[in-house]
Amino acid sequence: MLNTLTITEAHKKLKSKEISCVELVQSCLDQIDKVDGDINAVVYKNGEKALEEAAKIDAAGKFDHPLTGIPYLAKDVYCEKGIPTTACSNMLRGEKDGKTYISPYDSTTTKRLKAVGAISIGKTNTDEFTMGASTETSCYGVTKNPHDTSRVAGGSSGGSAAAVAANECIFALGTDTGGSIRQPAGFCGCYGMRVTYGRTSRYGVMSMASSLDTIGALCKSVEDAAIVLNTIAGKDPFDSTTSDKSVPDYTAALKGDVKGLKIGMPKEYFIEGLDSEVEKRIREAAQVFEDMGAEIVDISLPHTKYAVATYYVLAPCEISSNMARYDGIRFGNSIKKSESLVDYYENVRSEGFGDEVKRRIMIGTYALSAGYYDAYYRKSQKVRTLVKKDFTDAFKKVDLILSPISPTAAFEVGAHTNDPVAMYLEDVFSISQALAGIPAMSVPTYSSPRPSSPRRTSGEATSELPIGLQIMGPQFGEEKILNAAHAFCSK
Prior knowledge:
This protein has helices at 7-15, 21-39, 47-60, 90-93, 108-115, 158-165, 182-188, 222-232, 276-291, 307-322, 341-352, 355-368, 373-394, 420-425, 432-436, 478-490; strands at 42-45, 71-75, 119-124, 144-145, 148-152, 171-176, 191-194, 214-219, 262-266, 295-299, 400-404, 440-446, 467-472. It is an alpha/beta fold. The protein has a domain at 2-258 and 437-490: Amidase signature (AS) enzymes, CATH 3.90.1300.10. The strands form two sheets. Strands 1-3-2-6-8-7-12-13-11-9-10 form an eleven-stranded mixed β-sheet, sandwiched between helices. A two-stranded antiparallel ribbon has the order 4-5. α10 (307-322) packs across α12. It is globular and about 70 Å long.
């Protein structure tokens, strides 16, 4: 089926006229119709417009760029002109009064993709305003793992990861604040990279925590990840946090040679609570690198134990600020009557936001309040500096670092619903990289064949589920990571 193709495979077939763009797009739309009722990965389908764009591309007949004619899905926080963007929140869904937010402009990322002929076919499910690790806080309901529909797809980019794993698109866009691309990629058995902070533009992507958010893609291969990054990376005048550092050709970095590389294994990532099967897979992966000529080195990242606590002070503080803009005045959730403006705000936000968003707003507002700012926010910023220094020191000794993405494979739906702290601890291996602003990639160490339809099983053993290997690199070290991932996947 055409929807199972990678970007590279699809591009070759399109360029040789073996298939048409319309056929490729239709294949993905048909797959959504076939399987999404089971996994709930897609919250908005833009089929009619996508097919119109595909027909135009076929008529032009030019497939000079690898992404020309390639259908993708975007996480429902990416603004696309004329298309609903709700962040999977009732605050923007506006279901009661018809004031669902329709973006008047494109994000920089979707604009760059469309400029080379990539075709948006819809939006994917996410935790509400990207706050969660399981895509269970969405107003559209939970996204299920295509490998086992009794389990979560991860979060917050669970919809994008599940859509790629279930072949509902050729690639998908996600966001990563504290692991939200890497963890669902690990759970669903696809490839997802958190880039260096500032490597890609956040303009037009709804913010959660502005100093931590990064955007990127979830793909079916390392080469696909490199192709997409080539297209979306680079300086953006609309985002002052983007770096003016030149963008290399990431596909040229895929040489598959890791001989002589020093790869670190941090002892703080192999701790009590780590599933034995996960540890086994990661150590087997390290052995693969060693067999290819890399040197495996034991290292320490001593402030890792403070990362979760630090993140869950800093992120809610930024969330408290970013969520203040959603007031129901111009778009989204609204109410007809109120006694005062303050009463209006209280009712609109209480009704529009879900429990997890409210929880983080309250934590952040408390930590930023007079008398607590120094005790919590300022101290957390100091610890963040120490976490960053750990990585800076480590990368003086090694080229890359290996670790698990998550302590376990995908957990069952509802497992942590009533225990937010347990849910936060799911991020234990994916938060430090965000605090340090470094790139990291999730690579499947074990994955079932990409399913054409979801497997309706439950209670599956960990060894039957994908397990994510995390490859970390220094700031702007995406080339090293992609090359190592490519070498690993070639074995």
